[in-house]
Design goal:
It comes from Chloromonas sp. KNF0032. By secondary structure, the protein is mainly β. The protein has one helix spanning 3-20; strands at 30-37, 44-49, 55-57, 66-67, 73-77, 84-88, 94-98, 101-107, 115-118, 123-126, 129-135, 151-154, 163-168, 171-177, 191-194, 202-207, 210-212, 222-225, 227-232, 235-237, 240-243, 247-250, 261-265, 268-270, 273-277, 281-284, 287-291, 294-296, 306-308, 319-320, 323-325, 345-346, 351-352. The protein binds 2-acetamido-2-deoxy-beta-D-glucopyranose (3 copies).
Length: 358
C-alpha cells in the first residue's frame, strides 16, 4: 500500500474518530507506526505523525524516553533493542500500530513485552503478524515481567474519560511463555489488556484476529482485567494456559468499576486447554454474552470449554446460537449448566459453573 493511500485512509479514520469523540478538547494528532523485528534481528520502527507528517525513525536503545515530535506520545526502546514502550500523555492523540511484523524473538522473563501501550486512549493494532515469539524459561535475578512477550495495553491515571483499544486483522502464531505456572503470573500469550490506574472505563475490541498455539500463565491468548472485551470474528486454535486456555476474563464488582462485559460473537475456539479452569474461556465476574460461536474439544480440570465463576455473570438468554462439541458431559455433576435453549447445538455441554447458580 502506498504512503499516500495509507495517509488518506488514516485521515478519514481520524475524521471519524473526531466526530465520534465528544471529550475532545484540543486538536488530536494521529500517529501511525510500523514496527519490524524479523527473524531475531533487532527492531526497526518508524512513525508518521499527522496526516502530512514526516517519517520519524525510532532511536535507541539507550537513547532514553523520546517524544514523537508534534504529538504528546513518548516512546522508549528497551536495552534489549526489541521492546518498545509507548506512553501517551493526553487522551487526544491516537496511536496506531499498523502492518507490523515481529518474528523469531526470544525475550527473557524480565524483559518488557515487545509492545506496550501505556495510557493510550483509542489505540489500534492492525494488520500485524507476530510469529514465534517466546519468553525463555530461565529466571535471572531480576523482576519478572507481568506480561507475555507480545503486547500489553495498560491504562494510566491520565485517562479520565472512557477509552478503548482495538485489534483488527492481527495474527499471532506460536507466541507466549515457554512454560506455564500459576506462580509465574504472566498475563496473555498474545495480548494483555489491563485497565490498571485509568479513571475511565476501558473496553477492547478484538476483530478478525487469529491466535494459534499461543500460551501463557493466565490467558493463553488474551488476559483481560477490569475491562469490557468484545471478541468478534476471531479464531483461537490450540491455545494453552493454567486458567482461561484462550481467554482469561477478570472483572471487579460494578461498584468498583462500571460493569465489565464479555461479548463473544461469531468466534471459533478449537482445542483450547487450561490446566485448571476454563479450557477456552474463564469468566471471573462481569456479565457474559456468547453468540454464534463454535467451541470444539476443550480441555481443563474444571470447565472444559467455558467456566463461569459467579452466578450473576450468567443469563441463559445471553448464550445464543452456539455449537459445542467435545466440551463436558451434559448434566455432569456438580457443575454442568447445559440444557437445550436459544439455538445452541449441544453435542456436549459448553457452559459450566457452580451448581448452586443453575
Ligand atoms: C510538525 O508540525 C509543523 C507545523 O505543522 C510541520 O511544519 C512539521 O513538518 C511537523 N513535523 C513533523 C515531523 O511532522
Ligand atoms: C489491513 O490491510 C488490508 C489490506 O491492505 C486493508 O484492506 C485493511 O483496511 C487494513 N485494515 C486496517 C484496520 O487498516
Ligand atoms: C482491578 O481492579 C481492582 C479493584 O480496583 C484492583 O485492585 C486491581 O489491581 C485491578 N487490576 C489491574 C490489573 O489493574
Amino acid at each position: 500500500m502506498s504512503t499516500t493511500t495509507t495517509t488518506m485512509k488514516w485521515a478519514s479514520l481520524l475524521a471519524a474518530l473526531l466526530v465520534a469523540s465528544f471529550t475532545q478538547t484540543s486538536m488530536a494528532v494521529i500517529v501511525v507506526c510500523k514496527m519490524e523485528a524479523i527473524s531475531g534481528k533487532i527492531l526497526t520502527g518508524a512513525c508518521i505523525v499527522g496526516t502530512n507528517g514526516a517519517v520519524i525513525s525510532l532511536v535507541g536503545p539507550g537513547a532514553g524516553r523520546q517524544l514523537l515530535i508534534n504529538s504528546t506520545i513518548f516512546y522508549t526502546l528497551d536495552v534489549n533493542a526489541r521492546s518498545t514502550l509507548f506512553e501517551c500523555t493526553t487522551e487526544d492523540d491516537i496511536l496506531i500500530i499498523d502492518s507490523s511484523q515481529y518474528s523469531s524473538q526470544t525475550l527473557n522473563n524480565c524483559d518488557p513485552p515487545l509492545l506496550e501501550l501505556r495510557g493510550c486512549s483509542n489505540a489500534i493494532l492492525s494488520n500485524s503478524t507476530l510469529t514465534s515469539i517466546t519468553r525463555s524459561t530461565a529466571q535471572p535475578a531480576c523482576t519478572i515481567s507481568k506480561y507475555g512477550p507480545c503486547v500489553a495495553i495498560v491504562g494510566a491515571v491520565s485517562q479520565v474519560a472512557d477509552w478503548s483499544f482495538s485489534s483488527y486483522d492481527n495474527t499471532f502464531t506460536s507466541t507466549g511463555c515457554a512454560s506455564i505456572a500459576e506462580t509465574s503470573g504472566r498475563l496473555g500469550g498474545a495480548l494483555a489488556l489491563v485497565r490498571s490506574a485509568s479513571g475511565g472505563a476501558m473496553s477492547a475490541l478484538i476483530k478478525g484476529s487469529t491466535f494459534t498455539s499461543t500460551m501463557c500463565d493466565f490467558g493463553g491468548a488474551i488476559h483481560s482485567e477490569n475491562a469490557s472485551l468484545t471478541l468478534f470474528s476471531s479464531t483461537f486454535t490450540s491455545t494453552l494456559s493454567t486458567n482461561g486456555g484462550a481467554v482469561n476474563f477478570i472483572a471487579v464488582p460494578p461498584t468498583v468499576v462500571p460493569t465489565q462485559k464479555l461479548l463473544v460473537d461469531r468466534s471459533t475456539f478449537t482445542s483450547p486447554t487450561a490446566v485448571n479452569t476454563g479450557g477456552a474461556i474463564q469468566v471471573k465476574g462481569g456479565v457474559l454474552t456468547i453468540k454464534g460461536s463454535t467451541f470444539t474439544n476443550g480441555a481443563a480440570l474444571i470447565g472444559q470449554c467455558v467456566w463461569v465463576n459467579f452466578c450473576q455473570t450468567y443469563t441463559e438468554s445471553e448464550i445464543v446460537g452456539n455449537t459445542w462439541t467435545g466440551c463436558a458431559t451434559p448434566e455432569s455433576p456438580p457443575i454442568s449448566w447445559c440444557k437445550a435453549h436459544d439455538g445452541n447445538q449441544w453435542t456436549t455441554c459448553g457452559m459450566e459453573g457452580p451448581r448452586y447458580c443453575y
